[in-house]
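Risk mitigation, structural track. In case the binding assays with flavin-adenine dinucleotide fail to produce interpretable data, a predicted complex structure has been prepared as a fallback.
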Amino acid sequence: MSIPGTEGQPLRVAIVGSGPGGFYAAEALLESGLQVEVDLIERLPVPFGLVRFGVAPDHAKLKSVTAVFTQIAEDPRLRFFGNVELGRDVSVRQLGALYHAVIVATGAAGDRRLGIAGEHLPGVHAAGDFVGWYNGRPECADIQFDLDQEVAVVIGQGNVAIDVCRILASPIDALRRTDIAAHALDALARSRVREIHLVGRRGPVQAKFTPKELRELGALPGWQPRVDPGALVLNDASQAELAMPGFVHAPRNLDILRGFAQAPVEDGRRPLHLHFHRAPVALSGRSRIERIELEAQVLSGEAGAQSATPTGERLSLPAGLVLRSVGYRGTPLPGLPFDLVRGALPHRDGRIVDTGGTVLRGWYATGWIKRGPTGVIGTNRADSVDTVAGLLADLAQLDTLKAGRAGLLAQLSADRRKVIDFAGWRAIAQAEAERGRAGGKPAEKFVRVDDMLEAAVVAGAPRSWERA
Amino acid sequence: MTHVVTDNCRGCRYTDCVASCPVACFHVNEVRVYIDPAVCIDCSACIPACPVHAIFEEFDLADDQQHWIRINAEAAQRYPVIRTRLAPLDGADARRQQLGL
Ligand SMILES: Cc1cc2nc3c(=O)[nH]c(=O)nc-3n(C[C@H](O)[C@H](O)[C@H](O)COP(=O)(O)OP(=O)(O)OC[C@H]3O[C@@H](n4cnc5c(N)ncnc54)[C@H](O)[C@@H]3O)c2cc1C
Ligand code: SF4
Ligand code: SF4
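Fallback model:
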């Protein structure tokens, strides 16, 4: 029996998830020089994962990476299966039987909780839900964020936390020209937020911001970032960390923060307070969130491995809206092992392993569901190349004789599942662009799955569930 | 704004930068790489990927490094695009040590 990937026996691979991890895995397979048939399976009718639903609407240049994904999708050896969810429309067992190999790239969009009292109070949200809301993610479209509040507290020390602060503080006219969801634009236009606190447990050197994002906070008209100069005094370990490889952005961040700390306070500008060495310990309020209690932290330990411990000193702030961005985690997929601690798939060099460490033949992972929620868009490219290299090294061990695409299409059409192909997505994108044009926006996204499906059909493009 | 490859990228060509670039905007000659400012989307993924800290945001360039902006833009036109990691040049590790990295 011939090895998959040769003449007459294409290597049939399903990739689950069409974010950066999935697209770059597809790219690596298409460029492998082998005969390949790549099926990209996505639970939503629309592709691009967090590039569509995570990356902030005012970062249009970053979002233009979708042009690269579109080029990958145009390869005739690739087919997009939008509106098909692993676990709902097709099972792990079924995919395993249909394909030589499956690459799981489902991301890690679930949120971690703070685990403190009062977290259930109305007005306390996951920052990821707020991001999903302003980016038109269907699951988040109906969440109500109370922007009648004057004080917002954002908890976290990464770029997502900064994105959220920036969107809260952006002049509404700057957002009008983006593809921000209409419901969010309306709500933000009426926002009464006039004070923002960005709160983090660790110090300025350990914060995960990138300098570009941090600098943008200083350029928000009408707002002024404020930093207590005392928070920028470094202990010896933090000083040493400035020169360590894992802290490339820290020296620039520190410069920017020093600039913020030294700037004279301007009365007319609304304060955006950046708190370091402070962790939330309790949230309180009668029927909704009213106050947040922070406890001062001190860093100790060796450079590169410092941890924060509470000092006992407390600070209480009024808070009408609390958005927590303290980490993301993946969701388990029925039929696959899961590492609950990391919130990701257990793997060895991209090969999914069970709890005993045995490799699940033919199953691979890439992107956030593999590494956990770290790294930017490009990080997933190098990661997917690694995963695909492992897959290609395993070719001789993979089962042969798989039905692949024809088998999946047959099954989905038997189930009368509406499958959106890439032409269907183009029809959706075109309809969104037209909707946007009226308001001067690059796109007015559909925020309901049904509307997306309808746009794909009305344009006459897909009807792939009938064609199949 | 763009990102710029500066002097430290010389005789090493680890190209870890290239592997993490989401948009294929690196160009390569015999000894080093350049970024095409017209294609770069300013994602900064290449900065931590470079083992010798050769890449900077344009905004962060020191005054005596500004000439690299023009050099990158011009060289990107002249040399071919590179999309996947190359084998490091001989002597790359020595150069890295020489830089104290
Ligand atoms: C709020 C936010 C802002 C960010 N901003 C930036 C930024 O400005 N710049 C930057 O470089 N990086 C940014 N990132 C990081 C970047 O988005 C991630 O590195 C990247 O998206 C991870 O790619 P992925 O493919 O692993 O996951 P994702 O992008 O999450 O893609 C996963 C895909 O899988 C699909 N899926 C999930 N489950 C299933 C299933 N069961 N069946 C079928 N499909 C499924 C999802 O719908 C999704 O489309 C941001 C991240 C977040 C959360
Ligand atoms: S990783 Fe750094 S040194 Fe190596 S090629 Fe890229 S920019 Fe040059
Ligand atoms: S900043 Fe991003 S897009 Fe620009 S060269 Fe670096 S990796 Fe490529």
